[in-house]
């Protein structure tokens, strides 16, 4: 693939350099922020060799490339004459053209996405350690276990610090202020006071202590306040003392307010989100499993799945488990099965190669190449995936399966279904539902899609 030519054609069809405010990328998509979203010739973009599809969501013009998107992104940056690190910075947009939901979606995805890769890695590691100890292959008393567990669990325990940095960068604030706020939330003495049930006050105002380790929303809200305060402090503090006085004033205002107001409120909201999610699931687990298992990938098509990530993480941090993400995982196997079924049906070498290659990436957790390369263009594989995913999701819910960590998808999700207390029905459900979802989709695609209309 000539990624230089690909990048040149994309830039031209979206309106040229003058129409591009910003460009970033995720695992499979180039995400453009355009000055005028009406300028791009979307039909022409879709016809560019190497482009799997286009979607417009979250105030972004998203061009789906596939797993090699980083190569195209680098060439786009070269054409635009910007450094890749500069391209990651958010550019001010016309808020009249971008709705509140889109701005919120971009905010959340912009904070969470930079840490997703590491989060997935340590989540998988934590699940693997649970599996190794369940089979008595590794002792929890061994130094090997303790070091690896410190790495895996430490990331989530100190998540407020990590997200504090990411949120500060997103809000164009001092990232070390974000880290300092996160550090205060998980400071050992504060954690001990909470665990011991000790009541404290700040300037005689009662403080509602809670556990902020693993939390998501409190630190994001706190850093948003810090960014607001920092900007205004800079305007009044002399430049000669800004280096230390701006962080001092910002932190002395933000940290107490976080413990007194922001933290308790956001923790309460987090609890409501977790409880509401569980209530929806509890109303009818099997129906929930069938609907989510069948149609979750439609959410992926619109690029809105990243907006749900904080909720899924919040379920883990609040409840220690998540039945919703357990259901969503089977949809990946269903799409992978449809892609393999598509490949087996083909005589054309190009289509066969497309099916096998995207099916393999699907088994590793990346579905967008399947969606835009096979499912949407040929329709019947997508219908087969709806059916296979719905059946797999129903099985997952019927067996009351849960994920005990947040990380990878498909094959990489296997360790996350291992209960830290020992392998239970959740892992069994993962195996059964994944096999059923995969092979039902594969067989339906192979049986009912003809070589001519597939």
Give the helices and strands, then pairings:
Blueprint: H1 3-13, E1 20-25, E2 29-34, H2 42-46, E3 53-57, E4 60-64, H3 69-80, H4 84-87, H5 100-134, H6 143-157, H7 159-170, H8 175-185, H9 188-195, E5 200-202, E6 205-207, H10 217-236, H11 242-283, H12 285-301, H13 305-319, H14 323-345, H15 349-363, H16 368-378, H17 380-398, H18 425-448
Antiparallel strand pairs: 1-2, 2-4, 3-4, 5-6
Helix pairs in contact: 1-3, 5-6, 5-7, 5-13, 7-8, 7-10, 8-10, 8-11, 10-11, 11-12, 11-13, 12-14, 12-17, 14-15, 14-16, 14-17, 14-18, 15-16, 16-17, 17-18
List keywords for this structure.
66% helix; 4-stranded antiparallel sheet; 454 residues; two-stranded antiparallel sheet; globular; 6 strands; single chain; alpha+beta
């Amino acid at each position: 693939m000539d990624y230089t030519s690909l990048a040149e054609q994309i830039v031209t069809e979206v309106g040229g350099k003058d129409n591009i405010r910003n460009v970033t990328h995720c695992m499979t998509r180039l995400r453009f922020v355009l000055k005028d979203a009406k300028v791009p010739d979307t039909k022409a973009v879709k016809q560019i060799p190497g482009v799997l599809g286009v979607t417009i969501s979250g105030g972004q013009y998203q061009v789906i490339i596939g797993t090699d998107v980083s190569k195209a992104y680098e060439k786009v940056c070269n054409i635009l004459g910007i450094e890749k690190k500069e391209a990651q910075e958010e550019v001010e947009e016309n808020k009249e053209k971008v709705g509140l939901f889109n701005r919120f979606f971009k905010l959340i995805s912009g904070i969470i996405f930079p840490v997703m890769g590491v989060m997935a890695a340590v989540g998988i590691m934590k699940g693997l350690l649970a599996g190794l100890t369940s089979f008595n292959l590794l002792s929890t008393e061994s130094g090997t276990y303790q070091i690896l567990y410190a790495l895996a669990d430490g990331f989530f325990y100190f998540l407020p610090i990590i997200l504090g940095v990411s949120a500060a960068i997103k809000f164009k604030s001092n990232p070390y202020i974000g880290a300092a706020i996160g550090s205060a939330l998980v400071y050992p003495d504060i954690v001990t006071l909470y665990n011991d049930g000790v009541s404290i006050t700040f300037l005689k105002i009662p403080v509602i202590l809670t556990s902020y380790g693993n939390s998501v929303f409190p630190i994001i809200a706190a850093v948003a306040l810090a960014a607001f305060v920092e900007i205004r402090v800079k305007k009044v503090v002399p430049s000669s003392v800004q280096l230390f006085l701006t962080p001092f004033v910002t932190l002395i205002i933000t940290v107490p307010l976080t413990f007194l107001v922001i933290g308790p409120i956001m923790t309460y909201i987090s609890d409501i989100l977790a409880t509401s999610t569980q209530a929806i699931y509890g109303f009818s687990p099997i129906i929930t499993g069938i609907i989510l298992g069948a149609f979750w990938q439609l959410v992926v098509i619109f690029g809105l799945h990243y907006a749900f990530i904080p909720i899924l993480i919040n379920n883990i941090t609040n409840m220690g488990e998540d039945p919703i993400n357990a259901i969503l995982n089977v949809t990946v196997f269903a799409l992978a099965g449809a892609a393999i079924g598509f490949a087996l049906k083909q005589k054309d070498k190009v289509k066969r190669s497309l099916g096998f290659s995207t099916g393999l990436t699907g088994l590793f957790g990346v579905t967008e190449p399947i969606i835009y390369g096979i499912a949407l263009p040929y329709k019947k594989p997508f219908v087969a995936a709806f059916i296979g995913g719905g059946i797999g999701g129903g099985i997952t819910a019927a067996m009351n399966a849960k994920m005990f960590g947040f990380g990878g998808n498909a094959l990489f999700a296997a360790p996350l279904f291992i209960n830290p207390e020992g392998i239970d029905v959740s892992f069994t459900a993962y195996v059964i539902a994944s096999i059923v979802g995969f092979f039902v989709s594969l067989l339906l695609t192979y049986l009912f899609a003809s070589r001519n209309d597939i």
